[in-house]
């Protein structure tokens, strides 16, 4: 019997907009189904509808049968009963999802005490068992701790334990690892799969990450713009996608494998066509080249928070980046990669070491307006979230014009023309110049941010996680754009990322950081194919790979 | 981030251990400093104000030189200002604020007689503000965007626009004169009678402030209602009321408490008007009267009292904050 059966589900908002256009999907007992889609596809909405969590004032139509009960139109009491016994949900951000003002023990025992009427001692015993089951180190201590004392990965385990308190038959996971580091993601997915198998639960995994979904799911449902585009066994969807959209999605998903598709991508191209900078092949660092665009030796930064032990953000980082080269800095959160970027851009003074950009010493942070302007002319940064890095009140064209007029004495009309040129360069049109950020999509905004950073032709462009907030298809477009700019202009790029697969696509050199230290550096292809440092190996092993687990999917369950 | 998290995790386990005590000690130090600065300001402002206490004391008489000298010496006005200040502070710390010029009594006695009325008035108004303001805020937040929300907000705003003296007069004329439910005047004898006498004054005092607490409660609740942990709690099958109580209201308490702390000073100051309107002899009416008659010792004592009450209440709010929000005990880095 099927555990969850969604038929022709539609959701209309109070203002009449239709968000779901007749979704149908099912989850059998013990089955894992992946619901894959980009932002705005309605996948989270669908998942929430299973538990009767719908936007206020919305109208639903169709049918959602959960564990033999109809969810749509059910009385509040019935919906509560389903939430208490049939299905549980794990949310994306555990830091937002667990009440920060209550203890973890309270979170875990709350429903047992208040819904099932268990005595506090019994509820605690159950909580301890579950904390041990999700492999948290000291269950008894954790009960009296608060969420802020935990890392994101540990909190997500708590969230999982909390969802398991009700012994649900269906576990709905909404992007359970998106907010986490790749190694943590691997651990969490292991716990999830382990629990699902141990308890014979059905699982609905909502994710934007096709590779992740394919690595753990039996079947995949691909959604776009409120419609199901394609449905089928995980392997089939990934290897032989039928729908046009799925095909594009698969192509846009960066992979670690140096398959034919990947090797034909930018990595080779810029090396071949970047004669402006360095003469010899750029894979083995040339020392005879003129002045490298960026040279860092022994750069360090330590934060000394009051009343707490000092945090070494960057320790003794050294590297060179020749003109026209592209260096990736890879690391998980807390690795110091962003601090490194901020020091290079001059947003953060360094504690020690040397830093020279275009042959000029820039170790000291810029002082005064003139120095800040000069630093800005030599290096520009594209930030992670284009929703935050653009002023919502300033049009795209104006924000570029302002950068031009700040740094050059260009008259207004000329600046305006140049801004349009730059926008066209990044694949936008003159019409976009008059648009405010609000009306632009995420990818368009990031293009504006790139155009603005390139406006004054900096010697080095720093991109700090500049594509990680974007959907994969948009990310692919932005990466292609960057590759194109490198080919055309010999752009020197420092690319900060947590995503090894993306790095493979963009940079020929890679640097791996961990807890402030550079643990490995080398040519990207070599480093990914034959990592020397154990941490690099761990990072690589943590990247979800559909191929290996897919064998177990093919095998009878 | 991760490193910072780990550091916070190891240190912040007990909220009332070393770090917590240091926090409280720091607060007390700040409190003492604030009171010291306030005392400087309060004491020396006398020298900036026009008017001479001696001429008030000798009012109506043609002062002979000896009389002036005698009065000056009796009240210690011939000493250098810093010595006067020291004497005053040392006395104040012992509960001796000098002698009132107008009553020819100890300031402590003068104030002590009137303090209970004002305290009672402020406490009753405070309770009324908390109950009505928080209640209205909750009702508005839970009905956000609906008619009830708008009606509540508009109602509170209209009430807050009524000046205390107008409110007092309306309350007196309706409930005291026409309906005869409450007395028009005085503060009564004994606890029960005092409460009865102070019902109308405390309502008149509370009206203006209810809107502040109501609006803060509403916005704080609305913010919490949108939080993901509220949705998580709902998804786990908790009843709506339980979710609101345990996860929304509980988390919304911080700003409500902060605003309530700030309100205390406002209430004491605003009580002057209400006390005058209802013929209550409390601190407020005493302050007005003393300013009028240049009775500096009393004015200084009252102002110091208001400042102290304000600072202490806010220090208590600050100390309570980590009890409400464990993150604040671990420092801003943990947020």
TrEMBL record, chain A:
Give the UniProt family note: Belongs to the ABC transporter superfamily.
Q: Which region ranges are annotated with the description Disordered?
A: 257-292
Keyword tags: ATP-binding, Nucleotide-binding, Transport
- Give the ABC transporter domain ranges: 4-250, 294-540
One Gene Ontology term of the molecular function aspect: ATP hydrolysis activity
Q: Which domain of life is it from?
A: Bacteria
Which InterPro entries does this entry report, sorted A to Z? Answer: AAA+_ATPase, ABC_transp_ATP-bind, ABC_transporter-like_ATP-bd, ABC_transporter-like_CS, Oligopep_ABC_C, P-loop_NTPase
Supply the name of the protein. Answer: Peptide/nickel transport system ATP-binding protein
UniProtKB/TrEMBL annotation, chain B:
**Keyword annotations:** Cell membrane, Membrane, Transmembrane, Transmembrane helix, Transport
**Which one GO biological process term can you cite for this protein?**
transmembrane transport
Organism field: Agromyces terreus
Q: Which family does it belong to?
A: Belongs to the binding-protein-dependent transport system permease family.
Q: Does the keyword Transmembrane apply?
A: yes
Designated name of the protein: Peptide/nickel transport system permease protein
The domain of life is: Bacteria
Q: Looking at the keywords, is Ubl conjugation present?
A: no
| ABC transmembrane type-1 domain segment(s) | 115-317
Record-annotated membrane-spanning stretches: 28-49, 119-142, 154-182, 194-214, 252-278, 298-317
């Amino acid at each position: 019997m099927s555990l969850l059966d969604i038929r022709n589900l539609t959701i209309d908002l109070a203002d009449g907009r239709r968000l779901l256009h007749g979704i149908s999907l099912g989850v059998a007992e013990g089955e894992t189904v992946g619901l894959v889609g980009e932002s705005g596809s309605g996948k989270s909405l669908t998942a929430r509808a299973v538990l009767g969590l719908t936007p206020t004032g919305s109208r639903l139509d169709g049918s959602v049968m959960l564990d033999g009960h109809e969810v749509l139109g059910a009385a509040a009491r019935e919906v509560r009963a389903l939430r208490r016994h049939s299905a549980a949900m794990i949310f994306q951000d555990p830091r937002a999802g667990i009440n920060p003002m209550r203890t973890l023990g309270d979170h875990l025992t709350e429903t047992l005490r208040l819904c099932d009427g268990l005595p506090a001692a019994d509820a605690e015993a159950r909580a301890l068992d579950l904390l041990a089951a999700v492999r948290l180190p000291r269950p008894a201590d954790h009960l009296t701790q608060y969420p802020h004392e935990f890392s994101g990965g540990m909190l997500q385990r708590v969230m999982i334990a909390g969802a398991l308190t009700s012994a649900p038959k269906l576990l709905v996971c909404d992007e359970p690892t998106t907010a986490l580091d790749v190694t943590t993601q691997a651990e969490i997915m292991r716990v999830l799969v382990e629990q699902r198998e141990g308890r014979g639960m059905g699982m609905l995994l909502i994710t934007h990450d096709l590779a992740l979904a394919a690595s753990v799911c039996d079947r995949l449902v691909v959604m776009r713009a409120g419609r199901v585009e394609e449905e089928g066994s995980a392997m089939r969807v990934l290897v032989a996608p039928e729908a046009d959209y799925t095909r594009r999605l698969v192509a846009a998903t960066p992979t670690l494998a140096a398959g034919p598709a990947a090797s034909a991508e930018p990595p080779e191209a810029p090396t071949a066509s970047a004669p402006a900078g360095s003469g010899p092949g750029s894979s083995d660092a040339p020392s005879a080249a003129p002045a490298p665009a960026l040279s860092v030796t022994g750069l360090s930064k330590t934060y000394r928070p009051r009343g707490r032990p000092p945090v070494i953000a960057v320790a003794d980082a050294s590297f060179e980046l020749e003109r026209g080269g592209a260096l990736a800095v890879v690391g998980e959160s807390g690795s110091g990669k962003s601090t490194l970027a901020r020091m290079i851009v001059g947003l953060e003074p360094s504690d020690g070491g040397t830093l020279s950009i275009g042959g000029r010493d820039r170790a000291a942070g810029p002082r005064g307006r003139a120095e800040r302007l000069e630093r800005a002319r030599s290096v520009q940064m594209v930030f992670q979230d284009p929703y935050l890095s653009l002023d919502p009140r300033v049009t795209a064209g104006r924000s570029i014009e302002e950068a031009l007029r700040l740094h050059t004495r260009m008259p207004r009309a000329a600046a305006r023309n140049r801004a349009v040129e730059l926008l066209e360069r990044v694949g936008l049109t003159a019409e976009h110049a008059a648009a405010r950020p609000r009306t632009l999509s995420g990818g368009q905004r990031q293009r504006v941010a790139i155009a603005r950073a390139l406006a004054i032709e900096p010697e080095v462009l720093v991109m700090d996680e500049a594509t990680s907030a974007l959907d994969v298809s948009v990310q692919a477009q932005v990466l292609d754009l960057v590759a194109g700019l490198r080919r055309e202009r010999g752009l020197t790029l420092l690319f900060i990322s947590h995503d090894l697969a993306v790095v493979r696509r963009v940079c020929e050199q890679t640097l791996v950081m961990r807890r402030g230290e550079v643990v490995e550096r080398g040519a990207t292809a070599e480093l990914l194919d034959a990592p020397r440092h154990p941490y690099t190996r761990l990072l690589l092993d943590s990247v979800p790979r559909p191929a290996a687990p897919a064998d177990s999917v093919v095998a009878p369950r | 981030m991760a490193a910072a998290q780990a550091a916070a995790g190891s240190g912040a386990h007990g909220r009332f251990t070393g770090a917590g005590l240091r926090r409280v000690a720091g607060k007390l130090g700040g409190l003492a400093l604030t009171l010291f600065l306030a005392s400087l300001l309060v004491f020396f402002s006398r020298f900036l104000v026009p008017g001479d206490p001696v001429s008030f004391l000798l009012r109506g008489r043609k002062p002979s030189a000896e009389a002036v000298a005698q009065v000056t010496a009796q009240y210690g006005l011939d000493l250098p200002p810093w010595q006067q200040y020291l004497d005053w502070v040392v006395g104040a710390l012992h509960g001796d604020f000098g002698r009132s010029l107008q009553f020819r009594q100890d300031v402590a006695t003068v104030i002590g007689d009137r303090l209970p009325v004002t305290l009672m008035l402020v406490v009753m108004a405070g309770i009324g503000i908390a109950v009505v303001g928080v209640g209205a805020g909750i009702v508005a937040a839970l009905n956000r965007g609906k008619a009830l929300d708008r009606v509540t907000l508009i109602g509170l705003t209209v009430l807050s626009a009524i000046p205390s003296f107008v409110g007092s007069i309306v309350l007196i004329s309706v409930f005291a004169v026409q309906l005869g439910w409450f007395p028009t005047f005085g503060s009564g004898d004994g606890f029960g009678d005092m409460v009865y006498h102070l019902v109308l004054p405390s309502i008149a005092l509370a009206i203006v402030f209810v809107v502040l607490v109501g609006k803060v409660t509403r916005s704080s609740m609305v913010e919490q209602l949108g939080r993901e942990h509220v949705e998580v709690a709902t998804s786990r099958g908790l009843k709506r009321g339980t979710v609101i109580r345990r996860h929304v209201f509980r988390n919304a308490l911080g700003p409500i408490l902060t605003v309530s702390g700030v309100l205390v000073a406002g209430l004491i100051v605003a009580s002057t008007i209400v006390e005058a309107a209802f013929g209550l002899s409390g601190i407020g009416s005493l302050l007005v009267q003393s300013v009028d008659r240049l009775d500096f010792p009393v004015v200084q004592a009252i102002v110091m009292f208001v400042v102290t009450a304000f600072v202490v209440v806010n220090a208590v709010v600050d100390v309570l904050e980590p009890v409400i929000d464990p993150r604040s005990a671990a420092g801003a880095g943990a947020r």
